[in-house]
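Protocol step 4 of 6.
Sequence for Transcriptional regulator (Pandoraea aquatica) entered exactly as in the expression construct, tag removed. Do not edit the line below.
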Amino acid sequence: MMMSFMEPLISARKDAGLTQAELADQAGLSRMTVQKMESGALDPRMSTLLETARALGLEPMFVPAALRQEVEAFLRSGGKYLAQPSGVSAPPSIVETLRA
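Step 5 output, structure tokens:
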């Protein structure tokens, strides 16, 4: 299943407790632009997406198409290494390592 580029931006905005108007202000956009992007009525420029993401504290990452499924599976797993044992003695995930 291919995730829309807007889905994580919408989730991040809501998780941050921001209205569309507040996000627009932080990203230097109009509220109408944010509303149209989120509804799918506007196909935004890459620069608009980057400013929106950065206003939400996100950094977009480009992934080669050949690696997409593996990267998505890795991210869904919480950054766990393949075949990593679970439990107290398990090594930390890459996500936990990066957060430290």
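Step 6, annotate. Residues 6-77 form a domain with the 434 Repressor (Amino-terminal Domain) fold (CATH 1.10.260.40).
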